[in-house]
Amino acid sequence: MKVIIDLIEDIRESIANTEAYALHAGLLREDIHDAAKLHYAGEAPIGSYVLDNEKRELLFSVDHTDAKVSIGALLPSLLILDMQSMMYPLKMTVNRQYTGMEIVGFGKNEDERHYILFIKI
């Protein structure tokens, strides 16, 4: 399980807080023959996010609209959080079937300037 502070650190280390990167959801699927292996199954832009203090989580959503969240829009709101909030888990909603999924890792595509949040199904 990844938490907000993990995200902040990885953004700093992997893309040096470059604001122009767009957030994307990356889908990983387990290999049917070997559950230890994961296969990349595509990605979609993240259209929104909300910090839910009641559920104590940061929830990202793939909205299937033209809206795209950038690092420049996300990072300032995370950097001002207190330490307790920075320990909130990261979750993703892709559609009605896949809601509140844990984010299992991070990645980047330097050519397309995508910062990727990976989920596993």
- What's the pLDDT, averaged over the residues? 93
Shape: globular
Give unreliable regions as ranges. none
Sheet with the most strands, sense and barrel status: 7 strands, mixed
Instruction: Report how far apart the termini are.
Output: 14 Å
Give the total of beta strands. Answer: 7
Number of helices: 2
Task: State the strand order across the main sheet.
Answer: 2-1-7-6-5-4-3
Computed structural class: alpha/beta
Report on the architecture of this protein.
β3 (48-52) and β4 form a beta hairpin. The relative contact order is 0.30. The chain is globular and about 45 Å long. It has a seven-stranded mixed beta sheet. It has helices at 4-15, 71-79; strands at 22-30, 38-45, 48-52, 57-61, 90-93, 101-109, 114-120. With 121 residues, it is of the alpha/beta class. It has two helices and seven strands.
Helices and strands in order, then pairings?
Elements: H1 4-15, E1 22-30, E2 38-45, E3 48-52, E4 57-61, H2 71-79, E5 90-93, E6 101-109, E7 114-120
Parallel strand pairs: 1-7, 4-5
Antiparallel strand pairs: 1-2, 3-4, 5-6, 6-7
